[in-house]
Design goal:
Blueprint: E1 4-6, E2 13-15, H1 33-52, H2 59-73, H3 81-107, H4 110-140, H5 145-183, H6 190-212, H7 215-226, H8 233-259, H9 262-270, H10 275-305, H11 317-328, H12 332-364
Antiparallel strand pairs: 1-2
């Protein structure tokens, strides 16, 4: 097997077992077996893609060319079985792709291609020219933009209160489960241990059921079964999304608590703090910093999950866009507007979270 490397100082290619560059006499990098195995895997994937995409004009040719080029370029990788298989697949995929490409070109004459391109361009220009009228029809006529703003307000209302409920519920469940894991060896029977064991079992069932069923099903059960006699759809949505979010927040916070070194508990005990005060003043603040990115991600997921509130007839942001679409029979602008609003909300919230993380890191110094 021929071994070749490039000197990181002068850039020349050195072939053989030399340990130093013959030009600048600097040490050469070691030959990485893992890198060659990774490269061999890439050659195999490109060769396989050249077969799978051979019916698509030019696609199989491109992937076959990449596989053959990579196998010729990397002397260490091309001798591995994956690379050899990938090269064989590429050599098979190349002629198949060429045949498919030639067939498509012959089937679509130059004239037909020109007509297709002209029609496509004309249709694109016509679509662009129609955007102002489409915008007026979707948002200005009959003040239809109010559906979007009203839905946005309901989305914020449901998201904020559901997030607060989820955080409160998640903290309680996380404390029950982490306390049971920490204190079950210290407690010697009695009512306290029995109660903690019962609460831990209830918390485990809650996590299993909530995380094991879709949020849409939970929302519909809450509205059509549990609160079938209630007309307050916002309250139902807050409860459904808050209970669902609480299960995920609980596991996030519990992982943060368990990431704190046990010496912190001992330090709190040495200061005369009980278990509750140690958790409140020492453990929870540190755990919050550790899990802040995960909590922010859960809040972002919650914002987007509220888009299914339309299943119970709640007119949130997505439902507002859907109402406009049903009035104008135009789906593009209402859906794009809804998607853009969600994107802006998530970007602003992500920026605020990054600023908070930076502030917390600065406070540690």
């Amino acid at each position: 097997m021929i071994k070749s490397r490039f000197c990181r100082y002068c850039g020349i290619k050195v072939t053989g077992d030399e340990t130093s560059c013959p030009k600048c006499h600097q040490p050469l990098p070691d030959i990485s077996v893992s890198d060659s195995a990774k490269k061999a895997g890439q050659i195999f994937i490109f060769g396989l893609l050249s077969i799978l995409l051979s019916a698509i004009p030019f696609a199989g040719i491109v992937f076959a060319g990449i596989a053959i080029y990579q196998s010729n370029r990397n002397d260490l990788a091309k001798n591995q079985s994956k690379a050899k298989t990938g090269r064989i697949l590429a050599l098979i995929g190349m002629p198949l792709s060429i045949i498919a490409t030639v067939f498509v070109i012959l089937t679509l004459s130059v004239g037909n291609i020109a007509v297709w391109a002209a029609n496509t361009w004309t249709g694109f220009i016509y679509w662009l020219e129609g955007i102002p009228a489409d915008f007026e029809n979707n948002f200005i006529t009959d003040n239809r933009y109010t559906y979007i703003f009203k839905g946005l307000g309901i989305t914020f209302e449901v998201t904020i209160f559901a997030a607060l409920l989820g955080i409160a519920l998640g903290i309680v469940v996380a404390l029950i489960r982490s306390s049971y894991a920490t204190l079950k060896e210290e407690m010697h029977g009695g009512f306290g241990k029995g109660l903690l064991k019962f609460l831990n079992a209830v918390a485990g069932i809650y996590l299993t059921v909530i995380r094991g069923t879709p949020v849409v099903v939970q929302l519909m059960i809450t509205y059509f079964v549990i609160f079938a006699s209630s007309n307050n759809k916002v309250l139902v949505a807050v409860l459904a999304f808050g209970i669902n979010s609480g299960a995920y927040v609980a596991e996030i916070i519990r992982s943060g608590i368990e990431s704190i070194d046990k010496g912190q508990f001992e330090a709190g005990r040495s200061l005369g703090f009980g278990y509750v005060r140690t958790m409140a003043f020492i453990i929870i603040p540190q755990a919050f910093k550790a899990v802040l990115p995960a909590l922010a991600n859960e809040f972002i997921v919650l914002i987007k999950e509220t888009s299914v509130s339309g299943y119970i007839g709640l007119q949130e942001l997505t439902k507002g866009g859907d109402i406009i679409r049903s009035r104008t029979y135009s789906a593009f602008l209402p859906l794009i507007a809804v998607a853009a609003i969600y994107l802006v909300i998530v970007m602003i919230f992500s920026k605020l979270v990054s600023l908070l993380e930076r502030r917390l890191k600065n406070s540690e110094r």
